[in-house]
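Re: weekly structure request thread

Next one in the queue (101 aa):
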Amino acid sequence: MTWQEARKLYPDQFIKFEIVESHIVGDKEIVDEIAIIKPITDGKIAMKEFVSRKEGQFVYSTKNETLIIQLIKHVGIWSVYSSLTKNRMTLVMKLKFPVVI
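Done, posted below.
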């Protein structure tokens, strides 16, 4: 289902969905097709669904005309001291996570 079809089917609601098909343009993921998990009419329930969603699931309002995901690259560096080995370890994590805009 396209985002426009979802907007017509569930006007002025939140929907929980997964992306079926998309393409990347620069640092944005343009969503072509989604699979709706469930519609959500209450904002408080939508927030609970958002917090407890699984990886790859999104909660978004159909009031928004477009569905574009901003891809953000994040690099985190942590230094951890191990009491077992008495050594300091540096962890470098590169994460790429989506933010719906």
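Confidence is low (pLDDT under 50) at residues 89-97. The longest strand covers residues 68-82.
Next request, please.
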